[in-house]
Design brief:
PH-domain like, elongated, alpha+beta
Length: 579
């Protein structure tokens, strides 16, 4: 919030200094509350701007009100462009040059906002030559023109001789005069200023048209994408009037290139925690630029770093502070040397007066005292010459320090140029590494496929060997089973023969028993008839088996059910013994 407050104060300072607060302070405060979405406090406003001695409207009196009732309540949920435009409206008419410029009022407004971003944090606000050079370089690069370093060096020398930097209105006059954009038309300069404004003020890292695949209907629509440090917004067109959605970026997001499919080329994928977005760029170069820009943004979010232009501004400011501290230290040493030199001059003046007094006294004395005076004069003359040499050496050291300072500043400029070249080399190296990683992944995938195929062939070979061995074993086992079945068949045949013999014997026994039974029945019938005839009241009880008789295909069985079960158990025991 401290950085936001400083940025707001710069724009407010322009409006504050351009207005007569005795009459317009209330208007400024009311407008600030409106554009900053701060609740109005009419009581505090009226109390502060009362027309008596207890409600001062001086610079010292307005700032406490501004801090307490407005700036401390700002939450960041306001339109920065609208806020800056309100402050610009209050101060531009009074300060903007009346002479014709090569840029429009809208471009002048954007230059004014950029000035507030790059200016020093001290009042009255100025932009130092280093920041002027940085801004002019950005505009020149955006126009596609070459940077004229020698021309700017001459301008910088002329500027340093008169002042520390430029005000906002002088910077607008400098850019609007076309001194550093000769040969460029108004439209080119305007587009360059707008591009720098988007990057430095609106934090737009990249923007352009691409195709986006829908989540519901799965159709492809052209959208205008705008990349910022923590979000990608996409609109119907580049006028930014109709927003269609946002892609929230954080450290967990990633971007991947996709192969061409469904007739769409130059595809890449943005993965977030809750959604995945498929996007198609116009060509391979645009695709790679967007992938690189999004990856850099996610890396900054993971590291918790500021956007590149803000981090670069902070580094330039720290470097200027360091150089300023060294310059102040050098000036302090110069002052100390100058003070020491003045002390030496005073001592020499005192010595000279003493010599004159000694010479006056020596004129009145004898020749011996005159000789002593001459010796003293010679000795002090030598000392004076020595002091002059010391002074000359000090002046040479001062000149050497000034030369070293100029060399150091030149070295700083060379380092900035080297840093830019290193960034370009780093981009090339990242691209080469990405290509190398793609080839490496392809080789790894081919190697994995070859390994899988080789393992599959070895598996098939092993299965064939096992099948052959299993076939031999099964063949041997079938042979053994066949032998065992033949043996069992022979045993069964023998048992069948034995059963056939037993059956025949049982039939023979049955025939004998049947005959005996018929004979006994005939005898019994004859005897019963006789008894009934002679003794009709007597009824004989015939003997019978306690167990029920079994009935076979040949008639009543010759053995009981218990005897049959015993015979079955005997046959089963014999069969088990034979097997």
């Amino acid at each position: 919030m401290v950085g936001l407050k400083e940025e707001l104060l710069k724009s407010i300072w322009h409006a504050f200094t351009a207005l007569d607060l005795d009459r317009s302070g209330k208007v400024l405060s009311h407008n600030l509350c409106t554009v900053l979405n701060v609740p109005h406090d009419p009581v505090a406003l009226e109390e502060h701007f009362r027309d008596d001695d207890e409600g001062p409207v001086s610079n010292q009196g307005y700032m406490p009100y501004l801090n307490k009732f407005i700036l401390e309540k700002v939450q960041g949920n306001f339109d920065k462009v609208e806020f800056n435009r309100m402050c610009w409206t209050l101060c531009a008419k009074k300060n903007l040059s009346k002479s014709p410029l090569l840029i429009s009022d809208e471009d002048a407004f954007k230059v004014w906002v950029i000035f507030n971003f790059l200016s020093e944090d001290k009042y009255p606000l100025i932009i130092v030559p280093e920041e002027i050079e940085y801004l002019l370089k950005k505009i020149t690069e955006a126009m596609g023109a070459g940077w004229q370093q020698e021309q700017f060096d001459h301008y910088k020398i002329a500027l340093n001789t008169s002042r520390e930097g430029l005000s906002a209105w002088e910077l607008i006059d400098l850019i609007g005069s076309g001194q550093f954009s000769k040969g460029m038309d108004r439209q080119t300069v305007s587009m360059a200023i707008n591009e720098v404004f988007n990057e430095l003020i609106l934090d737009i890292l990249k923007q352009g048209y691409m195709l986006k695949k829908g989540h519901k209907r799965k159709n492809w629509m052209e959208r205008w994408f705008v990349l910022k440090p923590n979000i990608i917004s996409y609109y119907v067109s580049e006028d930014l009037k109709e927003k269609k959605g946002d892609i929230i970026l954080d450290g967990n997001c990633c971007v991947e290139a996709l192969p061409d499919k469904d007739g769409k080329k130059c595809l890449f994928l943005i993965k977030c925690l809750d959604k995945t977005f498929e996007i198609s760029a116009s060509d391979k170069k645009k695709k790679q630029e967007w992938i690189q820009a999004i990856q850099n943004t996610v890396s900054l979010l993971r590291a918790g770093s500021a956007p590149p232009h803000k981090e670069a501004r902070q580094k330039r400011k720290e470097l200027r502070q360091k150089l300023q501290a060294e310059q102040e230290e050098l000036e302090r040493q110069m002052r100390e040397l100058q003070a020491a030199n003045e002390n030496k001059q005073k001592e020499l003046e005192t010595v000279r007066k003493q010599l004159e007094a000694a010479a006056a006294r020596a004129a009145e004395e004898e020749k011996k005292r005159l000789q002593t005076q001459v010796e003293l004069q010679d000795r002090f003359s030598l000392e004076l010459e020595r002091e002059k040499m010391v002074r000359q050496k000090m002046e040479e050291q001062v000149a050497q320090k000034s030369s070293e300072l100029e060399q150091y500043l030149q070295r700083v400029r060379e380092l900035e140029e080297m840093y830019k070249q290193l960034q370009e080399a780093l981009e090339d190296e990242k691209q080469a590494r990405q290509d190398e990683e793609t080839v490496r992944k392809l080789q790894a995938r081919l190697l994995e496929e070859e390994t899988a195929k080789r393992a599959e062939l070895e598996k098939w070979h092993l299965q064939q060997q096992q099948t052959i061995q299993m076939t031999e074993a099964e063949k041997q086992e079938l042979e053994n089973q066949r032998m065992m079945k033949e043996q069992a068949l022979q045993v069964a045949m023998e048992q069948l023969k034995q059963l056939e013999l037993e059956r025949k014997e049982a039939l023979e026994q049955y025939e004998e028993v049947k005959k005996k039974l018929e004979t006994a029945a005939n005898n019994t019938k004859s005897w019963k008839d006789k008894v009934a005839h002679h003794e009709g009241l007597i009824r004989l009880i015939e003997p019978g088996s306690k167990n029920p008789h079994l009935i076979t295909n040949w008639g009543p069985a010759a053995f009981t059910e218990a005897e049959l079960e015993q015979r079955q158990r005997s046959w089963k025991g014999k069969k088990a013994t034979s097997t």
